[in-house]
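Appendix B, record 7
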Amino acid sequence: MKKYDDIVVGSGISGLTMCLLLAMSGHRVLLLEKGPAIGGSLSRFSRRGVSFDTGFHFTGGLHEGGILAELLTILGIRDAIEPVFLSGPSENQFIFEAQGKRFEHPSGIENIKKQFKGYFPAEAGAIDHYFDKVQSVCNRTPSLNLHANTIAPPSLDEDYVTLDAVLKGLTSNELLRGLLSGYAMCYGVRPDEMSFANHSRMCLSFYESIACVKGGGDAFIRAFERKFKEFDVEVRCNATIAELADIQDSKVGRFILSTGEEIVADNCVLTIHPKELVKILPQKHFSKAFMNRVSSFESSAGFFSVFASLKGSADPYPTGKIVSLFPNVDVNKLLDPHYEGMPALVIIKSQDQPEGNTAKGICILEPSFPEQVSAWSGSRRGSRPQEYLDYKKARVEAIKEHLFGIFPAYRENLDFVEAGSLLTAKDYLKSPDGSAYGVKQKMGQFNVVGKLSLHNLYAAGQSALLPGIIGAMMSSLIVGRVVVGKEQFGKMLNQTPCH
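Structure tokens (predicted):
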């Protein structure tokens, strides 16, 4: 029977981060991945020689001193990730269609404030106040200072008021409120459900800088794989935990894998969706209140994705690298599963240029929700009913016409090569529902994070702390600190230069 210090379940960015942190602390680690390859939604796929990202498209925090750059530095993989920054203000655009307004969104808070005040001169005070509040929340969140060796974010007053309430208290201008809440698309929760504090923690890095990455999410996967070879990390794909055995004194003695193999480990960190987590845990070791809490979690938004490539090298609309289309100024409606108007779109152009291929990939994302595909949730890819295929075809055509209505020249310049619904993501990611950001991070919600009631089991992941790549990695730092101990964790941090 093999013995490890730690088992990590799930190989998304949180699981990869957790494995490397534990291994860098001298632990022998086993990484289990349910699917055939590691990486989760970081993984890319190719069609006709063009690479497309599935879940990771762009990020904040990669600038010098940014939180993601610091995270990667701690892990020793900063030099392996090559950012392509959106430097010009026109490269990130927000278009509110009903109002016929196009807003350029530069990087750097002072640049943003100046630009937005030009659009809304009568709202200068509200704009200043909003960004001051965002920075104040992040300054009072010690865990965002990675070298502070702090366990978790504090509970601030802003954790108990929604983004929507703060914006309505600042301004009556619906268009400005829509613009300031537009990044809710990057965490899939309505502004009237998300706390202002978590919105601020999510968005500050986007305000500071936005970058795509050469090689996309695959660049992260390759970087982790190279580091795993330097340390004692064993990777098993097509395997997960099937049963917890020999439970004594609230600790698991043996871990029985889906392959039938039995493993002994001091600790196990589960970086999977909470609803997948409870399938592994013996119910008698968890309270009814815990189970009710997990079952009450709602899914964040996901996306219906359409993938296209530019025919030839000339883009008729070269300025916008990321363009967000808002048919409705109320972002609450656009992120409501029951909204029946035209959905939002986010158009993301790849910054990669494959050798020998002049075509560039474009990913078009439309918010989607599990309720919209629930009728076919029991089906599998390759055997779905005709009704689902008709739904998928209709969505693709509607997205194309929406896109062409704003960018008519694309009608002749795009080659549409693939599309995927939440069910596609569900199958591909082995997730419960295919949502993009795990559970909704609603105000007042008590997520599953850290040590569980079986004392050598821990929970981490993007459903545990904050959604997105930074939130998922931060959860692993916080939980990893508990597993290895504050002193050992501090030694590791001290070996990394602080910017």
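Remarks on this record: The CA atoms of residues 9 and 99 lie 47 Å apart. The chain has three domains: 2-80+214-297+438-494, 105-208, 301-434.
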